[in-house]
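Follow-up to my post from last week.
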Amino acid sequence: GAGVSQSPRYKVAKRGQDVALRCDPISGHVSLFWYQQALGQGPEFLTYFQNEAQLDKSGLPSDRFFAERPEGSVSTLKIQRTQQEDSAVYLCASSLGVAVTDTQYFGPGTRLTVL
Amino acid sequence: AQTVTQSQPEMSVQEAETVTLSCTYDTSESNYYLFWYKQPPSRQMILVIRQEAYKQQNATENRFSVNFQKAAKSFSLKISDSQLGDTAMYFCASKAGGTSYGKLTFGQGTILTVHP
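User reply:
Got it. Predicted complex:
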């Protein structure tokens, strides 16, 4: 009965470091989304998974961003060679099925600060 | 492509009063959905209310209701009998039907403060 969880909740990285952000969706949820939320702004779509298949990665801002969901459950968002502009809250959301009407349930987010 | 605009960065209301948050959107889709999400300071985004564009009747969820004006592409949220727990950032969002995979497009948000 747990909701979407994300870890770590806070991450501080030095510019140039690689980071990995984890998302545990609600058990059995087929769809998984990643969003990036800059300070004081609305979330922006990054990428979408249907089970293990990454069907839409149109929102990834550069090739330094990489996401995977190898077994169709847990997902990891990796950012290589972090830059200051990567500082944001990264939100994960999951939904039960693939219907556009399905409700997305959000995790608490990971706040990434790049120094 | 879809765009969502919230022109009120901040709003405040007294407890028990009514407040309306504004939202306009633009889309080329004929089939789409509109949402209001609430994000309390703890940051867990929660769905407040949703509206299917093909439905003319405005959605209502307890103290929350929307005024959906399709021709004007307007989608405002009315909160009645405001409570202290309503204090949060509110986001208007849209979702296209078809092959968009259900990704949400959010507005910039409105910070709502309910005063005792």
